Amino acid sequence: MEKKTPEQLVQIDYRPPKTDWMDPTIDFEARRGTWSYPAAPKNLIYMGFPNPREWSPTDEDWKLPPNWEEIIREGFRERLAKYRSLQLFMDICVRCGACADKCHFFIGSGDPKNMPVLRAELLRSIYRNDFTAVGKLLGKVAGARKLTPEVLKEWYYYFYQCTECRRCSVFCPYGIDTAEVTMLARELLNLVGLNINWVMEPVANCHRTGNHLGIQPHTFKDNIEFLCDELEEVTGVRVHPSFNRKGAEVLFVMPSADYFADPGIYTFMGYLLLFEHIGLDYTLSAYASEAGNFGLFTSHETIKRLNYKIYAEAKRLGVKWLLGGECGHMWRVLHQYMNTMHGPPDFLEVPVSPVTGTRFDHAASAKIVHICEFTADLLRHGKLKLDPSRNDHVRVTFHDSCNPSRAMGLLEEPRICLKAACNNFFEMPENTIREQTFCCGGGAGLGNDENMEMRLRGGLPRANAVKFVREKHGVNTLACICAIDRAVLTTLMEFWVPEVTVAGVHELVANALVMPGEKERTTDLRGRPLAGREGTGDAV
Amino acid sequence: MALVVSVVVIGLLVAIPWLGVSALGLASFFGIVVPYAAAALLVVGLVLKVLRWARSPVPFRVPTTCGQQRSLPWIKPARLDNPSTAWGVVGRMALEVVAFRSLFRNTRAQLKEGGKTVYGPDKWLWAAALAFHFSFLAIFVRHYRFFVEPVPAVVGWLQSLDGFFQVGVPVVYLTDLVILAGLVFLFGRRLVDPRLRYISLAADYLPLLVLGGVAVSGVLLRYFVKTDTVAVKDLAMSLVTFHPTVPDGLSPLFFVHVFLVSVLFAYLPFSKLSHLAGVFLSPMRNLANNNRMRHHRNPWNAPVNVHTYEEWEEEFHDKIKAAGLPLERE
User: Fold this and answer.
1) What is the gyration radius of the CA atoms in chain A, in angstroms?
2) B316 vs A218, B81, B313, B319, CA distance in Å?
3) Do residues A391 and A423 touch, judged by C-beta distance below 8 A?
4) What average pLDDT does chain B have?
5) Which of A38, A469, B289, B326 gets the highest tally of CB atoms within 10 A of its CB?
6) What's the CA gap between B127 and B122, in Å, rounded?
7) Is residue A37 within 8 Å of A448, Cβ to Cβ?
8) How many Å from the N-terminal Cα to the C-terminal Cα in chain B?
9) A415 touches chain B (CB under 8 A)
10) 10-residue stretch averages of pLDDT, chain A, 540 residues long
């Protein structure tokens, strides 16, 4: 695949093609760079998923099971009966078009089937054909299509080209949520073995080892102790996290990317330093070593399978409550699904901050608190000693991650943390933040390299907003509370706005934290020299 | 093609009652049988539709949150855009149904020179939708004067409000003008905007054309064609009292009007027009965002195959031990 330049990528034609949208033909060969590779058979076999095999979307024959039509039809019928959302969304869309230009993939690609309304029509047209009298009677005139292998291929292309960000749902007069449609469409695709490896490999890893990256218990401990060494080098303070410790007050769960790779590791170092600062009685678990959940990008059943370990481990360790780190889709699961799937966890207590005494009543049933809520409460009570001038080399803006904003409403808490830790905070334009925030372009399992062109296209609206504050305020740091963001936005910035680095909120909080017994801080957690202070700049 | 089909169909829908009454003398069919059948289809169809929706449960509480959550007591929550209580949900739904809150957010994305994206407010769709729906409601309520005796005061008030400017004889109703303007805009944008034209089905054009047909025939009947309103009321009263008789002196145009309204009613439950009931059931809007405060029950919460701690410890036993992590079984 030839690499395209930013100038080439912004040549976007928004005029719809001459062909009718009901024509499902997709040339996968010509569209390399905009789709993801299929799941390796070993991952499907491990999870017990149907139809494991070697295949490629560029093949003519996708090796579907012989009775694939029946499987899809029955699967569709079952889900219409189980999800009011699906039944309703299939019936009531008026195609007003309000959602059309709300999708980052449409804005970045101009492909009309990336308009949320048409993405859903891909499914709806089959619904009309198979489940409504009008569709059966009138066919194409009524907007109905027959299910063919080409339609399945089209589903594969477009339902793995939606990041389930829910921005369209904010603008829809009926709240029709393409994330819900995509989730259920992916469930149908999974029934006949149409899955992508960048989702299924993490799922299989997570089921086996406890985390998406397949990190085994000894490496888990090694990685984190390495980060403790790094922290000690920067701050002169040794932190002592515990592992699988029974009787701790709090079990801290996080996305595994945070203890695996740059730049997530700085966020993780931030958590560790904060907990040391307040003397929190917490433990980490090498079993519940992932609170992120790629099941969300697979099926509701898979969410439940992977999410099981969180409450189970809290119960085994006998902790009082749970604290969760910075991650977007993880919090969609923790906030909107976990309590229903595995709760209520009556063996836990209503979370109370041991430092401020605040009772987190908003988590009274699920017993899990977001670290930004926890830190905002600490800040409110003046329990953190901060020197925000240590972040003066940083001019920061905040990217609201899709799920915390549109599936939770965690908008102020991270801003409270950032504003306390940094002197230079600037908001991006209002149509690009909070509930109207734009996706990083690589959520929902699409943050893989083979899908790079579509990632960069989908990330264009976000990158443009960053570029705007870059030019207006000299912003050089994009803060976020999501592990996928930290990975995907980094690539996105390198391409569209190369001067901007991506950081977690608690990385910046930790930069500013004044620790008892610390050495004079000359660099930030990344080893970059602080503004106006002598520093070698090579500590990390 | 969708457009052509729609135009042909609306042509037929006008021609059928016109010819049926004027050439074949089927006044009682179009004045009695058709309206009764349409009303029956509307009621039965809509009830069945709502029951069908209601039969499917809401397994997960996944509202779309459009504002600050309720978390710490000193952070101000968005009570209406991200409600955490039942009253908040009532408020959110009321804003959605009465004021089209979500549509009000609408923006238009544009790609400028050098690949800059800008998002301007775009309230046209919201304004036209609101204008159309409220005019329709007002006209619907105004028609009560044909179906009840004595006419309720509120209908009279609405009529005088609607004809506030006292222009023309008979007085021109504002809503008649507004609904026509709204329909022209809503239809026009589907033709003019290439994106909308691309996504529009016959099921999008046709309802607008039928509504347009209803409005135009209604306007003609009121302002341009002499219509015996006493006869109209006699027919309407005979229908609602279930002693149907068709009086003389009603023009074929009147039957066109009645037929198009009947078609609209009969078609409603089986089409996208069912959004008028569906909007109340949308789980993305009608649930409080209180997942962590209260347990939400999934009626079909089936057990799944999980990887337990015991299985995990057994598989990684030696590595856990070598790393010096605690074990359940040494």
Assistant:
1) 23
2) 9, 47, 5, 5
3) yes
4) 95
5) B289
6) 10
7) yes
8) 74
9) no
10) 83 91 96 97 98 97 97 98 98 96 97 97 98 93 95 98 98 97 98 98 98 97 97 96 97 97 96 98 98 98 98 98 98 98 97 98 98 98 97 98 98 98 97 97 96 97 97 98 96 96 98 95 95 56
Sheet of A321-324, strands arranged across? A282-283, A250-253, A321-324, A368-370
Q: Which of B56, B81, B322 sits opposite A83 (nearest CB)?
A: B56
pLDDT for the residue A326:
98
CB A236 within 8 A of CB A276: no
Percentage of chain B beyond pLDDT 90 is: 88
How many whole angstroms from its chain centre is CA B303? 38
pLDDT in tens, A286-297: 999 999 999 999
8 Å CB contact between B256 and B17:
yes
pLDDT, tens only, B141-178: 999 999 998 999 999 899 889 988 888 878 899 999 99
Closest CA to A433 of A464, A467, A462: A462
Q: What is the C-alpha to C-alpha distance for residues A238 and B154, in angstroms, rounded to an integer? A: 77
Decide: B13 and B259 in contact? Cβ < 8 Å: yes
**Pick among A12, A77, A85 to test the B interface (most B CBs inside 10 A):** A85
| Interface subset of A 263-322, CB within 8 angstroms of B | 286-287, 300-301, 304-305, 308-309, 312-313, 316
User: From the candidates B69, B76, B318, which should be mutated to test the interface with A, based on the most A CB atoms within 10 A?
Assistant: B69
pLDDT > 70 in chain B, percent = 100
For B14, the token pair is 């006008």
DSSP state of A427: P
Amino acid of residue A235: T
Candidates B324, B14, B242; CA nearest to A218 is: B324
Question: Which listed CATH number (1.20.1250.20, 1.10.760.10, 1.10.405.10, 1.20.950.20) goes with B2-322?
Answer: 1.20.950.20
Q: What mean pLDDT is predicted for residues B115-122?
A: 89
- How much is the pLDDT for B302? 86
pLDDT tens digits, B79-98: 999 999 999 999 999 999 99
Distance between CA atoms of B222 and B217, rounded to whole angstroms?
9
Q: Under an 8 A CB cutoff, do A112 and B199 touch?
A: yes
Kindly provide the residue ranges of all beta strands, DSSP E only, lying in A108-236, ordered along the sequence.
none
ipTM of the complex: 0.95
| Contact residues on chain B for A245, CB-CB shorter than 8 A | 326
Q: How far apart are CA A536 and CA A239, in angstroms?
A: 23
Per-residue three-class SS string for A204-241: HHHHHHCCCCCCCHHHHHHHHHHHHHHHHHHHCCCCCC
Each residue's pLDDT tens digit, B291-311: 999 999 999 998 999 999 999
| Cα–Cα distance measured from residue A458 to residue A109, given in angstroms and rounded to the nearest whole number | 7
- Biggest CA-to-CA distance, chain A: 78
DSSP state of A293: -
Domain limits, chain A: 6-30+50-194, 204-512
Strands A501-504 and A250-253 come out as: unpaired
Q: Where are the domains of chain B?
A: 2-322
Closest among A286, A26, A282 to A148, alpha carbons compared: A26
Whole-number Å distance between alpha carbons of B11 and B206:
11
